[in-house]
Amino acid sequence: MRRLFPVTDQTAARTPDGDDGAPRIRAEREAREWSLDEIADAYAYPAPGPGGVRPWLRANMVSTLDGAAQHDGRSQPISNAADMRIFGTLRGLADVVLVGAETVRQEGYRPARARAEFAERRRAAGQAPAPAIAIVTASLDLDLSLPLFTSPLVPTLLLTGASAAPDRIAAAEKAGARVVVAGDGAGVEPARAVRALAGLGHTRLLTEGGPRLLGQLVAAEVLDELCLTVSPLLTAGDAQRIAGGPSVTVPHRFTLVSLLEEDGFLYGRYSRHGGDRGEERRV
Hints:
By secondary structure, the chain is α/β, with parallel strands linked by helices.
């Protein structure tokens, strides 16, 4: 893996090998596989600003060159090994993983696991051994016999609206989930969801979609950062983009924070706040 942006000595233009062999050494360094510690450093959450710790919501998505967020209904076919290492690292850094109920069904979601590689980082940050999974669901129509509910290290959270069916809430709580109301009606209001998670002590937030949920977060202007893998594949067809739903009135501008490359895949980080936490929040 190599860093393309910000520019460093490793991304400087190469010159023909001289007696010192510097370009050759640099090429060897770029070609090696990054350790999980190096990836974690590259994707570290921003440090708290002057106002203290605030929630920071990042999304992690993958897209083909022609904009498909999945193939045959799943994201795995358009991913690669390095993308999955980044996927695992982002989970290793997060307090909670926010995901839509349909994505849980389609992708066969399982509980996040504790990983020894991130244990010390998580202890130092005061985090649980693994992030909680928080599912956005209006209906609470989920298979409560799944490992997400029967064997998580951290209880699974269900974010729903105030009008959710009481019997479904009772069944979910009996299964071990924690139900969190984050909307006045049937659905979840994104800004309230962020506040509710922060109220539980979860400020390092990660969403993995799907496209409908990401579209709602974008429209509500609560997304701080997008971690986007661009896969060098073309799929055609009518697959969803990474974000769906109604369009926003004015496109939201994000700033490129970093860009990595490996085997033709591009791994970008884009921030709504120009690389820092910013002070204006709409949550």
